[in-house]
């Protein structure tokens, strides 16, 4: 049988907090169309992501990838830093 590898979900967002050790909070924004009125609205979700080397700073744009549960709320891992904050 051939091996089936499941693609992992990825999201792009900005780092909101890096106060924790080896963890960051990433805010992911997306535009959603309103059901009745059709207007596009911004919605955001905050994800706790694993950052083992503590490389991320507040304001960085990062790509996060879904992974196995690492703690109670941590289910994402920082894949790479797309843009460093000034």
Weakly predicted, low-confidence segments: none
> Do you know the CATH architecture?
Beta Barrel
Class per helix and strand makeup: mainly beta
Count of discrete alpha- or pi-helical segments spanning 4 or more residues: 0
CATH homologous superfamily label: Nucleic acid-binding proteins
- What kind of oligomer do you see? single chain
CATH class: Mainly Beta
Please give the number of β-strands: 5
Order of SSEs, N→C? EEEEE
* Helical residues, percent: under 10%
Could you tell me the strand content as a percent range?
over 45%
Using the CA coordinates, give the radius of gyration.
Answer: 15 Å
Largest sheet: 5 strands, mixed, barrel
Give the strand order, joined by hyphens, for the main sheet: 1-2-3-5-4
Sum up the structure in keywords.
86 residues; mainly beta; OB fold (Dihydrolipoamide Acetyltransferase, E2P); five-stranded mixed barrel; globular
In short:
The protein has 86 residues and is mainly β.
Write the layout of secondary structure elements.
Elements (H helix, E strand, L loop, with lengths): L9 E8 L5 E11 L6 E11 L10 E6 L7 E10 L3
Parallel strand pairs: 3-5
Antiparallel strand pairs: 1-2, 1-4, 2-3, 4-5
Descriptive account of the structure:
The protein has 86 residues and is mainly beta. The relative contact order is 0.28. The protein has no helices and five strands. Strand 4 and strand 5 form a beta hairpin. It has a five-stranded mixed β-barrel with strand order 1-2-3-5-4. It has strands at residues 10-17, 23-33, 40-50, 61-66, 74-83. It has one domain (10-80): Beta Barrel (OB fold (Dihydrolipoamide Acetyltransferase, E2P)). It is 0% helix and 53% strand. The protein is globular, with a radius of gyration of 15 Å.
